[in-house]
TrEMBL record:
A GO BP annotation: methylation
Gene3D superfamilies: Vaccinia Virus protein VP39 (3.40.50.150)
Cited InterPro entries: Methyltransf_25, SAM-dependent_MTases_sf
Recorded superkingdom: Bacteria
Keyword Transferase: yes
Alphabetical list of Pfam families matching this protein: Methyltransf_25 (PF13649)
UniProt keyword terms in alphabetical order: Methyltransferase, Transferase, Ubiquinone
CDD domains: AdoMet_MTases
SUPFAM superfamilies hit by this protein: S-adenosyl-L-methionine-dependent methyltransferases (SSF53335)
Protein name: Bifunctional 3-demethylubiquinone-9 3-methyltransferase/ 2-octaprenyl-6-hydroxy phenol methylase
Alphabetized PANTHER family for the sequence: PUTATIVE (AFU_ORTHOLOGUE AFUA_2G14390)-RELATED, TRANS-ACONITATE 2-METHYLTRANSFERASE-RELATED
Amino acid sequence: MDNYFDVVARQWEHNPMRLERAQATADQIRQVNFSARKSLVDFGCGTGLLGVQLRGDFQQIHLADSSAEMLKVAQENVSVAGLTDIHTHRISRLTDLPAKYSAITTLMTLHHLADLKQFFTDACQVLEEKGMLMIADLYKEDGSFHDHHPGFDGHHGFDIPVLTAIAEGCGFQVRNAQQYYAVEKENKAGEMVSYPLFFFVAEKI
């Protein structure tokens, strides 16, 4: 899928729904009770739509992604705006990052990751003590969300009890999980379908 994201990077921000979705997610993040606000990692950041909105909520924002083209657009946006508290990192795993952080967030990224246990283990490793992990993603769906991407080989959304069990087995205590947004999308049959998203908050213990 990295090649797909490289191809669409320049058009990514042309869809107003993506900005709306990022704004809704940022609103959820601002409601979380953090023990520290030194640094936030936006993992799978794309062009930085979510992370940039959280400037001022954290001292430093780190935009991390595996797509070179997405990060190129993100860095251009940061440079044009003259933002010195936002940094970009091209990584495949969280453990590729150079330090420990106060918080990690992902927006529509987890369903692209094959190994969920590895992700939660990595997140626990790079978070500071009592660091917060926030995941915004799809509830379990019928597979139609990615109908237009025949190369998709990820997860068709998630069941919250399954994610909770994995997170707790990797060193987290789940604080909250709730629906907060829905993506309206046309399926192959030309029908508009609503795909609800959850906001999942876990604290490193």
